[in-house]
What we know:
Blueprint: E1 12-20, E2 26-29, E3 39-52, E4 55-68, E5 74-78, E6 81-82, E7 90-91, E8 97-98, E9 101-110, E10 116-118, E11 127-139, E12 142-154, E13 162-172, E14 179-180, E15 197-200
Antiparallel strand pairs: 1-13, 2-3, 2-15, 3-4, 4-9, 5-6, 5-8, 5-11, 7-14, 9-10, 11-12, 12-13
Amino acid sequence: MLALAPSAEAKVVYTATNQKLPLNTTFVLDVNGDGIPDFNFFAGTLLGGALKRDTYTFNSDATLTVSAASQSNQVRGAQFVASALPAGVKIGGDRKFEGGNLFMGAVSATDGGPPTYFGPWAPQGGNVKDHYVGLKFVINGETHYGWARFNVQIRQPLKGNLQAILTGYAYETVPNASIMAGKTSGAEKADTRPATLGQLAAGAAGH
Protein backbone atom coordinates (compact mmCIF):
# COMPACT_ATOMS: atom_id res chain seq x y z
CA MET A 1 0.00 0.00 0.00
CA LEU A 2 1.14 3.52 -0.73
CA ALA A 3 1.26 5.98 2.13
CA LEU A 4 -0.61 9.15 1.25
CA ALA A 5 0.51 12.52 2.62
CA PRO A 6 -2.20 14.02 4.86
CA SER A 7 -3.94 17.13 3.57
CA ALA A 8 -3.68 20.39 5.47
CA GLU A 9 -6.11 20.38 8.36
CA ALA A 10 -7.89 23.60 9.14
CA LYS A 11 -7.43 24.96 12.63
CA VAL A 12 -8.70 28.15 14.18
CA VAL A 13 -6.35 29.64 16.77
CA TYR A 14 -8.33 31.78 19.20
CA THR A 15 -7.10 34.13 21.91
CA ALA A 16 -9.56 35.37 24.52
CA THR A 17 -8.81 38.74 26.09
CA ASN A 18 -10.47 41.75 27.70
CA GLN A 19 -8.25 44.62 26.67
CA LYS A 20 -9.43 48.21 26.72
CA LEU A 21 -7.76 50.31 24.05
CA PRO A 22 -5.83 53.22 25.55
CA LEU A 23 -6.89 56.69 24.45
CA ASN A 24 -4.69 58.65 22.05
CA THR A 25 -2.12 55.84 21.83
CA THR A 26 -1.70 53.30 19.03
CA PHE A 27 -2.67 49.78 20.08
CA VAL A 28 -0.79 47.05 18.20
CA LEU A 29 -2.32 43.64 17.53
CA ASP A 30 -0.05 40.67 16.77
CA VAL A 31 -2.70 38.17 15.64
CA ASN A 32 -0.56 35.02 15.49
CA GLY A 33 1.91 35.88 18.24
CA ASP A 34 5.07 35.79 16.12
CA GLY A 35 6.33 39.13 17.40
CA ILE A 36 5.46 40.94 14.16
CA PRO A 37 2.78 43.68 14.42
CA ASP A 38 -0.18 42.95 12.13
CA PHE A 39 -2.72 45.73 12.76
CA ASN A 40 -2.89 49.05 14.59
CA PHE A 41 -5.99 50.38 16.35
CA PHE A 42 -6.33 53.99 17.48
CA ALA A 43 -8.97 55.45 19.81
CA GLY A 44 -8.53 59.21 19.71
CA THR A 45 -10.36 62.04 21.44
CA LEU A 46 -10.14 65.79 21.09
CA LEU A 47 -11.31 68.68 23.23
CA GLY A 48 -10.63 71.92 21.45
CA GLY A 49 -11.89 75.35 20.61
CA ALA A 50 -11.93 77.73 17.69
CA LEU A 51 -12.83 81.37 17.15
CA LYS A 52 -15.99 81.72 15.12
CA ARG A 53 -18.01 84.87 14.50
CA ASP A 54 -16.10 86.62 17.30
CA THR A 55 -17.26 84.07 19.86
CA TYR A 56 -15.43 81.14 21.41
CA THR A 57 -16.71 77.86 19.97
CA PHE A 58 -16.06 74.61 21.81
CA ASN A 59 -15.57 71.48 19.68
CA SER A 60 -15.18 67.87 20.73
CA ASP A 61 -14.88 64.58 18.91
CA ALA A 62 -13.91 60.93 19.36
CA THR A 63 -12.63 58.70 16.55
CA LEU A 64 -11.79 55.00 16.22
CA THR A 65 -9.59 53.72 13.35
CA VAL A 66 -7.74 50.58 12.27
CA SER A 67 -4.74 50.32 9.97
CA ALA A 68 -2.60 47.54 8.53
CA ALA A 69 0.85 47.39 10.10
CA SER A 70 2.40 46.31 6.79
CA GLN A 71 1.60 46.84 3.10
CA SER A 72 0.62 43.19 2.64
CA ASN A 73 -2.08 43.22 5.33
CA GLN A 74 -5.67 44.41 4.81
CA VAL A 75 -8.97 44.99 6.65
CA ARG A 76 -12.48 44.00 5.54
CA GLY A 77 -14.24 47.14 4.35
CA ALA A 78 -14.76 49.53 1.46
CA GLN A 79 -13.93 53.14 0.64
CA PHE A 80 -11.55 53.32 3.63
CA VAL A 81 -14.30 52.34 6.10
CA ALA A 82 -13.89 49.15 8.19
CA SER A 83 -16.96 46.94 8.32
CA ALA A 84 -18.61 46.05 11.65
CA LEU A 85 -19.38 42.38 11.01
CA PRO A 86 -21.91 40.34 13.01
CA ALA A 87 -21.10 36.78 14.05
CA GLY A 88 -21.33 34.17 11.30
CA VAL A 89 -20.15 36.31 8.40
CA LYS A 90 -17.56 34.68 6.15
CA ILE A 91 -14.19 36.43 6.15
CA GLY A 92 -11.98 35.60 3.17
CA GLY A 93 -12.25 34.63 -0.45
CA ASP A 94 -13.47 37.32 -2.80
CA ARG A 95 -14.74 39.64 -0.08
CA LYS A 96 -13.66 43.27 -0.12
CA PHE A 97 -10.50 44.17 1.78
CA GLU A 98 -8.46 47.36 1.85
CA GLY A 99 -5.03 48.33 3.10
CA GLY A 100 -3.83 51.51 4.74
CA ASN A 101 -5.82 53.37 7.38
CA LEU A 102 -9.54 52.63 7.70
CA PHE A 103 -12.15 54.61 9.60
CA MET A 104 -14.34 52.68 12.05
CA GLY A 105 -16.52 55.26 13.75
CA ALA A 106 -16.66 58.73 15.27
CA VAL A 107 -18.82 61.30 17.02
CA SER A 108 -18.53 65.06 16.75
CA ALA A 109 -20.29 67.99 18.41
CA THR A 110 -19.95 71.77 18.46
CA ASP A 111 -21.14 74.38 20.93
CA GLY A 112 -22.93 71.83 23.07
CA GLY A 113 -25.26 70.93 20.20
CA PRO A 114 -26.53 67.45 19.41
CA PRO A 115 -23.80 64.97 18.47
CA THR A 116 -23.35 63.63 14.95
CA TYR A 117 -22.32 60.00 14.54
CA PHE A 118 -20.31 58.59 11.66
CA GLY A 119 -19.37 55.09 10.52
CA PRO A 120 -20.58 51.50 11.13
CA TRP A 121 -18.95 51.32 14.57
CA ALA A 122 -20.77 54.45 15.77
CA PRO A 123 -24.51 54.18 15.15
CA GLN A 124 -26.85 56.73 16.65
CA GLY A 125 -26.13 56.37 20.35
CA GLY A 126 -22.67 55.02 19.58
CA ASN A 127 -22.95 51.52 21.05
CA VAL A 128 -21.82 48.33 19.25
CA LYS A 129 -21.45 44.97 21.04
CA ASP A 130 -19.78 41.74 19.87
CA HIS A 131 -18.98 42.82 16.33
CA TYR A 132 -15.93 41.88 14.31
CA VAL A 133 -13.18 43.47 12.26
CA GLY A 134 -12.30 41.14 9.37
CA LEU A 135 -8.54 40.68 8.98
CA LYS A 136 -6.35 39.57 6.08
CA PHE A 137 -2.65 39.24 6.86
CA VAL A 138 0.52 37.45 5.78
CA ILE A 139 2.46 34.79 7.69
CA ASN A 140 5.72 33.63 6.07
CA GLY A 141 4.61 34.95 2.70
CA GLU A 142 1.17 33.27 2.76
CA THR A 143 -2.25 34.88 3.20
CA HIS A 144 -4.33 34.09 6.29
CA TYR A 145 -7.73 35.35 7.45
CA GLY A 146 -8.88 36.23 10.94
CA TRP A 147 -11.00 38.51 13.06
CA ALA A 148 -10.87 40.82 16.06
CA ARG A 149 -13.99 41.18 18.25
CA PHE A 150 -14.84 44.49 19.90
CA ASN A 151 -17.36 46.12 22.18
CA VAL A 152 -17.42 49.81 21.30
CA GLN A 153 -19.13 52.77 22.93
CA ILE A 154 -18.63 56.18 21.37
CA ARG A 155 -19.86 59.27 23.16
CA GLN A 156 -18.91 62.93 23.14
CA PRO A 157 -15.75 63.40 25.22
CA LEU A 158 -17.76 65.35 27.78
CA LYS A 159 -20.54 62.71 27.84
CA GLY A 160 -18.66 59.51 28.53
CA ASN A 161 -15.95 59.49 25.86
CA LEU A 162 -14.81 56.63 23.64
CA GLN A 163 -14.40 53.10 24.96
CA ALA A 164 -13.27 50.22 22.74
CA ILE A 165 -12.66 46.80 24.32
CA LEU A 166 -11.00 43.97 22.42
CA THR A 167 -12.66 40.79 23.72
CA GLY A 168 -10.92 38.23 21.51
CA TYR A 169 -9.24 37.51 18.19
CA ALA A 170 -8.63 34.49 15.99
CA TYR A 171 -7.10 33.36 12.71
CA GLU A 172 -7.14 30.36 10.39
CA THR A 173 -3.85 28.44 10.23
CA VAL A 174 -4.40 27.12 6.71
CA PRO A 175 -3.30 29.68 4.07
CA ASN A 176 -6.16 31.21 2.03
CA ALA A 177 -8.81 29.38 4.10
CA SER A 178 -11.81 31.51 5.06
CA ILE A 179 -12.94 31.91 8.66
CA MET A 180 -16.36 32.71 10.08
CA ALA A 181 -16.63 35.77 12.30
CA GLY A 182 -16.87 34.52 15.87
CA LYS A 183 -15.55 31.02 15.19
CA THR A 184 -13.19 30.05 17.99
CA SER A 185 -12.25 26.45 17.18
CA GLY A 186 -11.51 24.23 14.21
CA ALA A 187 -10.36 20.67 13.81
CA GLU A 188 -8.12 20.95 16.85
CA LYS A 189 -8.47 22.53 20.26
CA ALA A 190 -8.19 26.32 20.24
CA ASP A 191 -5.08 28.02 21.59
CA THR A 192 -5.97 29.92 24.78
CA ARG A 193 -2.61 31.59 25.44
CA PRO A 194 -2.63 35.16 26.80
CA ALA A 195 -3.05 37.97 24.32
CA THR A 196 0.16 39.18 22.70
CA LEU A 197 -0.49 42.87 22.29
CA GLY A 198 1.79 45.89 22.36
CA GLN A 199 1.27 49.59 22.60
CA LEU A 200 3.18 52.24 20.72
CA ALA A 201 2.99 55.99 21.27
CA ALA A 202 1.26 57.88 18.49
CA GLY A 203 1.18 61.57 17.86
CA ALA A 204 -2.21 61.99 16.21
CA ALA A 205 -5.52 60.20 15.76
CA GLY A 206 -5.50 57.60 13.02
CA HIS A 207 -1.70 57.74 12.68
